[in-house]
Design a protein that fits this description.
heterodimer, A: 283 residues, Rossmann fold, ten-stranded mixed β-sheet, two-stranded antiparallel sheet, 16 strands, globular, B: alpha+beta, Butyryl-Coa Dehydrogenase, subunit A, domain 1, Butyryl-CoA Dehydrogenase, subunit A, domain 3, 3 domains, four-stranded antiparallel β-sheet, 13 helices, 49% helix
Chain lengths: 283, 385
């Protein structure tokens, strides 16, 4: 099975409080921020790796995971691709593009072009990126490809190397089980990190993955050393025959008002509901 | 999650990538429990297999034995991140007790011993401990009194060991025993499995610091150990111990750098937040200069430790420089932790503050792994006076 996994670099979500808005309000500035792999992509990578390995034999690879990252061709994007390679992916693709010229529309165009080139059996991607939180690119990509889209996957099983899959989707109203014939685009929810969330018909069905709570697997030192030798293909939008035209324009950014830090004690549930509704305006 | 340190001069992208992974592991798996595990004098045994699965127990060991490759420099970086992000020195040293127990088997053991002991330890299935010090003597290694007398296919071991890290929970103990006559030529290394009749843990010792790590006194009473558990040749134990000490001292120097770095970070954060006389503590020159001195001392000890690691990895003989690095780092660590407590004032004397614990942890280092005085003896000998 060959899986394409898109990974985006985002400003470290743990330091979101350091975000600043440019003085003219037209952009969020990223100076001084640390770049991390989008956590949602990290979950998808975990799912893709589990689908393409025999975990009972020291995570022996039985398929191929190709990473694609779209962004500036700099040390940060490369470091994030290397991290994915260190976790086990086979190779990487860096599509050079300026952040300002990217939106879900352009990203889905680029990913379509990469899919056309690579012919993967599946695309597994983060349901959203931790910076823009748009939650659009996966669905748009599937539409462009004419492939099924399965959003918010929390369990994935296949017994025929990904040709057909049973996927459980985590929804607000419950869990939906869908059966799908590949190729398809899948986005994941964080429950895909659960020890028994992925069955690929090769790793023994009773295998328990290590409990992961905040992200995918850790890259081992061995993986880090191997990653240095794995190829990262670099390409431009021109190479893929794409003219970037963003459909989305941001007109103004502003930071939320600073919190006062005032504490109000309430006497009753009614009082609490009233304060949350009328004073804090959060419900 | 803390920002990365500037690290050692020898570090490459690979070391930095390793730090990032270990930092995430320690922040998620250790930090939330650090205080509780230290107070409980124990961390869950399961943490060994979690660390192994994450790929960190095998750092510094060859792949053919189930390790992850890498060298002493990688071990120092990984262990520093466990301290910085995990914030429990006791857990770090308990989790790392194989770092001193395995090398004699890796270097001098036979294939069977490597399969039986090294592989399962790096997989997190077995806990390893090293036992050299005895109730009657520590620094005088050549005077080991625990006896191992050959009887057919077995050695019959009698004696006692003390201050043994992971000794209570260890599945096997790499033990220094006397198989021959007096002096260093009579010492051998024998692996004693904890289930062996005649082996027992006489007490779990209560310590000043390192609470989360178990420390034991062990008793051997007519303990029959298969002769196949002898590492290398009879009488070569002293050499193994001495070789082990060079790396152990660098581990300890690295831990001192890490502990001091953590104490320093905690102090900087506290000094910026704590208000007194209408401004924060960092607004006072006396506090700023304390912090500046701490940062300087850490940088100096880190530089010497890093230099010694580099020379060691280049194949130089470094017993004297390793002793210097250990003394410089332990002195620095004690001084920095002392000042960290001072900056924290009354809170620095309270158990729920990290610096209070680090202050106690720091006291081990001029004693363990060869005392400050023994380090100076080594330096004197090499320097020729």
């Amino acid at each position: 099975m060959k899986i394409l996994v898109s990974i985006k670099r985002v400003a470290d979500p743990d330091n979101a409080s350091k975000l600043k808005v440019s003085s003219d309000g037209t952009a969020v500035t990223s100076e001084g921020l640390e770049w991390k792999m989008n956590p949602f992509d990290d979950w998808s990578l975990e799912a893709a790796l589990r689908l393409t390995e025999n975990a009972a034999e020291k995570n022996a690879r039985v398929g191929e995971v190709v990473l694609v990252s779209i962004g500036p061709n700099d040390e940060h994007t490369q470091r994030i691709i290397r991290e994915g390679l260190a976790k086990g992916a086979e190779r990487g693709i860096l599509v050079e593009a300026d952040d300002a010229n990217l939106d879900s529309n352009v990203v889905s165009q680029i990913l379509k072009a990469v899919v056309d080139k690579e012919n993967p059996d599946l695309v597994v991607m983060g349901k959203q990126a931790a910076d823009g939180d748009s939650n659009v690119a996966g669905t748009k990509l599937a539409a462009r490809l004419g492939w099924p889209i399965i959003n918010y996957a929390m369990k994935i099983s296949t017994n025929d190397d990904g040709k057909t899959l049973e996927v459980k989707r985590e929804l607000d109203t419950g869990v939906a089980t869908v059966k799908v014939t590949g190729p398809a685009v899948i986005t994941t929810s964080d429950r895909i990190l659960q020890p028994e969330s992925v069955k690929n018909g090769i790793t023994p069905a009773d295998h328990q993955y290590a409990k992961l709570e905040v992200g995918g697997r850790y890259a081992s030192l061995k993986g880090i050393m191997q990653a240095k030798k794995k190829p990262i293909d670099q390409m431009s939008l021109g190479d893929l025959g794409i003219e970037a035209k963003v459909a989305l324009k941001y007109t103004k950014f502003e930071l939320p008002p600073a919190r006062s830090g005032d504490t109000t004690f309430v006497e009753s549930v009614e009082d609490l509901v009233d304060k949350l509704h009328n004073t804090a305006k959060v419900i | 999650m803390e920002a990365p340190t500037k690290g050692y001069l020898f570090e490459t992208d690979e070391h930095r990538a390793l730090r990032e992974q270990v930092r995430r592991f320690a922040a998620a798996e250790i930090a939330p429990n650090a205080h509780a595990w230290e107070e409980a004098n124990e961390f869950p045994r399961e943490l060994y297999s979690r660390a192994a699965k994450a790929g960190f127990l095998g750092v510094g060991y060859p792949e053919e034995l189930g390790g992850d490759g890498g060298d002493l420099g990688h071990v120092l970086c990984a262990s520093e991140e466990v301290v910085l992000a995990g914030k429990s020195v006791g857990t770090c040293v308990g989790l790392g007790s194989h770092g001193i127990a395995l090398p004699p088997i890796v270097r001098f053991g036979n294939d069977d011993q490597k399969e039986r002991f090294v592989r399962p330890t790096l997989a997190g299935d077995k806990i390893a401990a090293l036992a050299i010090t005895e109730p009657g003597g520590g620094s005088d290694v050549a005077a080991v009194r625990t006896k191992a007398v050959r009887d057919g296919d077995h050695y019959v071991v009698n004696g006692a060991k003390t201050f043994i890290t992971s000794g209570c929970r260890g599945d096997y103990i790499t033990t220094a025993v006397r198989t021959g006559g007096e002096g260093h030529g009579g010492i051998s290394m024998l692996v004693v499995e904890s289930g062996t009749p005649g082996f027992s843990v006489s007490s779990k010792l209560k310590k000043t610091g390192w609470w989360a790590s178990d420390t034991a006194e062990l008793i051997f009473e007519d303990c029959r150990v298969p002769a196949t558990n002898l590492i290398g040749q009879e009488g070569t134990g002293f050499l193994m111990i001495m070789m082990n000490f060079v790396t152990e001292r660098l581990f300890l120097a690295g831990q001192c750098v890490a502990i001091a770095e953590l104490a320093y970070r905690e102090s900087v954060a506290y000094a910026k937040q704590r208000q007194a006389f209408g401004k924060n503590l960092a607004g006072f020159q006396v506090i700023r200069h304390k912090l500046a001195d701490m940062a300087t001392q850490i940088a100096a000890a880190r530089a010497l430790t890093g230099e010694c690691v580099t020379r060691y990895l280049n194949g130089e003989e470094t017993p004297s420089l390793a002793a210097m690095a250990k003394n410089a780092a332990t002195d620095m660590c004690s001084a920095v932790c002392d000042q960290a407590v001072q900056i924290h004032g009354g809170y620095g004397y309270m158990r729920e503050y990290v610096v209070e614990r680090l202050y106690r942890d720091a006291r081990l280092y001029p004693i363990g792994g060869g005392t400050r005085e023994i380090m100076n003896e080594i330096i004197s000998k090499v320097e020729g006076y």
